[in-house]
Inverse folding.
């Protein structure tokens, strides 16, 4: 049985922890709102790029096929694993990792190549003896378009030099602050949208093929940027949920410790009184 | 004069410009072009170059546009670009330094230098200096 002093110490330390988790929850929820606003702000850009791509696809390309649209037999796959820099986000990091390991499966290092963003996926994949080709970190909860551009530049150069034949992005899709889904999406080779666009015929300057060549890298960059932003929102959402439940658990623990402490205190007072009364009775 | 066109500049992070225009001039990957209101539907691939917009009040505004596309339909123009900066937002000293660095790299290339990347950096720096009228 713990002494009253031990219990007091314990209550104090749990209260401190609760304050920390509460602060982290607040920080995460403020950042989450910002991250969501940022994800919404990219939507017009992404929609326009997609729209132009569809316009080009439905126009006359004179049998021009961009290398980025060409499907070739897959000898080596590049995985872009998007994860967090910091922990304390519940199952977020382990879900991404699980997805990545499931995707890589039994492939040998000659058949895969990994690019990671965020410290967590890098460390945990490394400790499982996966070979990591390149890693980026320091921006998991606030990615910028520049980051997406440099990652895509690396992936594209590998794809164009036939080092890899396929690029898969593993990220976490943000549904709401309670639900985030880890998923894998193939971003290269691109799938040509086949839905016909209605409306007028467009002219292209200089010509459809050159516009397509300029457009596809931009399309990939915005796809990756969207993945990074979704992952950032998911990370913050997961952290907020984890910290909320940690704060609640700490509250429960404090009240049950308080009860125990009061019981102990009461029984020691009762003990003292009965000793005094017993002593006084003995004197009569 | 024809009804002015509606012009928006969209970047991944924000809508930078949203207003009316009587005329705008830019550079496509194969040369300069100007667009007047009521243009036929068109998609243009832009180069890293200045873009000048004349609004109906007769004010001329110049932006630094780092590649991207112009889409024209029904007198509505959308300029979709990865990055667009107004002259006031450009850090001139930084652009000067970037220009010198890129020129240095291109004039004595060593094997570990990515020439293509240095050329892109130089083009960006020159554009920034051009719209701030430093060169």
């Amino acid at each position: 049985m713990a002494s009253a002093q031990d219990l007091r110490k314990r209550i104090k330390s749990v209260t401190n922890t609760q304050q920390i988790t509460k602060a982290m929850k607040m920080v995460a929820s403020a950042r989450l709102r910002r991250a969501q606003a940022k994800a919404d702000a990219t939507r017009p850009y992404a929609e326009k790029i997609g729209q132009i791509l569809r316009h080009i696809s439905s126009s006359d390309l004179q049998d021009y096929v961009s290398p980025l649209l060409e499907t070739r037999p897959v000898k080596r796959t590049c995985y872009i694993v998007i994860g967090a820099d910091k922990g304390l986000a519940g199952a977020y990091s382990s879900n991404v990792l699980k997805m990545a390991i499931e995707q890589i499966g039994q492939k040998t290092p000659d058949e895969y190549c990994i690019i990671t963003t965020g410290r967590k996926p890098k460390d945990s994949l490394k400790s499982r003896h996966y070979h990591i080709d390149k890693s980026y970190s320091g921006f998991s909860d606030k990615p910028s378009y520049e980051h997406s551009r440099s990652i895509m530049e690396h992936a594209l150069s590998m794809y164009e030099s036939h080092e890899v034949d396929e690029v898969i992005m593993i990220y976490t899709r943000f549904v709401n602050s309670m639900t985030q889904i880890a998923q894998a999406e193939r971003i290269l080779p691109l799938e040509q949208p086949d839905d016909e666009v209605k409306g007028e015929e467009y002219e292209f300057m200089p010509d459809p093929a050159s516009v397509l060549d300029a457009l596809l890298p931009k399309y990939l960059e915005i796809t990756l940027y969207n993945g990074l932003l979704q992952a950032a929102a998911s990370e913050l959402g997961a952290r907020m949920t984890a910290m909320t439940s940690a704060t609640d658990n700490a509250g429960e623990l404090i009240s049950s410790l308080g009860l125990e402490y009061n019981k102990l205190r009461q029984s020691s007072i009762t003990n003292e009184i009965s000793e005094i009364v017993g002593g006084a009775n003995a004197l009569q | 004069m024809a009804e002015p066109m509606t012009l928006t500049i969209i970047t991944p992070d924000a809508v930078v410009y949203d207003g009316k225009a009587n005329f705008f001039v830019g550079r496509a990957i194969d040369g300069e072009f100007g667009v007047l209101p009521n243009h036929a539907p068109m998609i243009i691939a832009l180069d890293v170059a200045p873009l000048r917009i004349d609004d109906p009040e007769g004010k001329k505004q110049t932006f630094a546009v780092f590649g991207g596309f112009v889409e024209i339909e029904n007198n509505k123009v959308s300029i979709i670009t990865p990055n667009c900066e107004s002259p006031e937002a450009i850090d001139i000293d930084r652009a000067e330094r970037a220009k010198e660095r890129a020129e240095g790299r291109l004039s004595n290339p060593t094997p570990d230098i990515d020439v293509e990347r240095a050329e892109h950096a130089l083009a960006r720096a020159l554009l920034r200096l051009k719209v701030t009228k430093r060169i």
Notes: Chain A has a mean pLDDT of 89. The helical segments of chain A are 4-41, 43-57, 92-104, 119-127, 145-160, 208-283.
